[in-house]
Batch of 2 targets.
Target 1
Amino acid sequence: MEEIVVVSGKGGTGKTSIVGGLISVVEDKVIADCDVDAPDMYIILDPEIEKKMEFTGGRFPVLNQDVCINCGICEEKCRFDAVHTLGDETIINNYRCDGCGVCSRVCPVNAIQMENQVQGYWYISKTRFGKFVHAKLGIAQENSGKLVNFVRAGAKDQALKKNAKYIIIDGPPGVACSTISSITGVNKAVVVVEPTLSGIHDAKRILQIIKGFKIKPGIIINKYDINQEMSLEIEKFADSEGISILGKIPFDKAFIEGIIQKKTIVEYNREKYYPIFSEIWEKIL
Ligand code: SF4
Ligand code: SF4
């Protein structure tokens, strides 16, 4: 079984649309959406959820107002400005809280207990393209890297059960810890790059990380025709680094029109895009 991750140096490069094109031409696969902070693969896949699992990524303080004597010690000691005394009540702001546990340790009357909290959910779903493992992290919740590990483990489990040859991972944009978790241990990494100055700059950062994991990356230039000169720059850079250009996708409103109709680009315009994505897949292999 091979894991292939598709990432981008920044958001808005059209990475998920590219993954949509790939899953339309690859047989024998499980799909994983590891962009757990802002998942959008489900929009195209329209999944039927079969299993929903809680994700408890860390322990957070729960304050018992009946025991609290409003001494203010926890407010004073919290380094994250997450505790405030309002009138005769002490309140913890979970959106600021880091889960460090200091408040619980300094409380003279044991009014604060650290408890596991549901930070999000992960799902196993059925789609017209096969099994799909995805997740959603709660608002302002952290530990996205850990949630990615759950999604990847779930996808691996599904792939083993179905004897699938490939796991196609839609990775997060940027270089946060969820990206590192998405890349670690994969067999191949595909970087989607847009031909803009910031696009190239951010792509170089992610390529550096991939290189650090000793994984050989390939590049797909998306919307290559919006700036042919910059696309040429990317090709020259790739050549100098020994990185393959797997494909060049033109700017095409069909991508957006397809998403509106919950279709991958290959479903939306098979005649034009099936050969393009089949060729990209061949090069990936
Ligand atoms: S767990 Fe840490 S960050 Fe959260 S409220 Fe307590 S002291 Fe502040
Ligand atoms: S340290 Fe304990 S008793 Fe004092 S304000 Fe905080 S929760 Fe209440």
Target 2
Amino acid sequence: MEAYDRFELLINDRIVKTPVAIASMAGIVDAAYVLERADHIGAAFIGGYSIDAPTLEASRRMAEEGRKEFLYDDPLEALGREVEALKQSDVVTGINLRGSTPASYAEVARAFEDAVVYEIDAHCRQPAMVEAGCGEYLLRHPAKLVEIIRALKAEDVTVSVKIRAGVASNDADLARIVWKAGADIIHADLMDFGHNKVRQIRNASPLTLIANNSITTFDKAMDAFSHGADLVSLARQSDAWTLAGLDAAITRSAEEGGWYNAPKQLCRGGDIRRSPSAACR
Ligand SMILES: Cc1cc2nc3c(=O)[nH]c(=O)nc-3n(C[C@H](O)[C@H](O)[C@H](O)COP(=O)(O)O)c2cc1C
């Protein structure tokens, strides 16, 4: 069965061959990391990459404090090498970005156009990054997040917003705001909220939804899918063995039972829009 027929999943106008993604880890997830795991994933978000002077300074501070960060003087040149290396693969690529102004994001989008998905890092909670006006700052100041989404969409590119659940005053409102601002993807770190958070975000917006946080087994992945996630992503346990196991089990399940026909969505109070023909058998 062709990958599109199996999962009917497109991101950035490209077929996502399996609904398993790698989530970014600063200083760790780059093109080489993704290429080593490319057989088992459909999408990957490299980075996070700091893209302007205030966020690069924040990265340097964080590195001095012992965190892994990608450090360079010229962000476009550094990112260009990563994007180029991934062009040979069939993995749909996103770049997770930390910028202090909407203009910084737009500049990156002008450089790489539709070659990648542009993911806004509204997730990082490190004080240096928050002080630079990105990461979690954007969840507490959604007007700025909207400005960044609009600046990127003005460049006609695909936009993902990486959020951490439970930080914004209301995640459902945030999902609606992100949707109305024009974003294409919500990539949600569910923290400890689990599948109820998937359903809350799914019910608030029609965007492609990537569920993240400790989704390392087939059962956890299916739980996320049956409550409305389109993909799952892994960061800390994104080793080839775990990704291969997930990909194989999900693919087998789709081949045997079909992807949009999982009865438990209805039976367990899941998301009915994913299974128009599902019945509680
Ligand atoms: C070392 C490390 C670095 C991370 N860096 C980023 C980052 O730069 N941008 C981002 O959006 N999330 C970042 N994350 C968060 C992960 O993408 C992910 O949301 C989180 O680890 C939960 O998923 P997991 O349980 O699969 O690891 C980082 C996580 C770790 C552990």
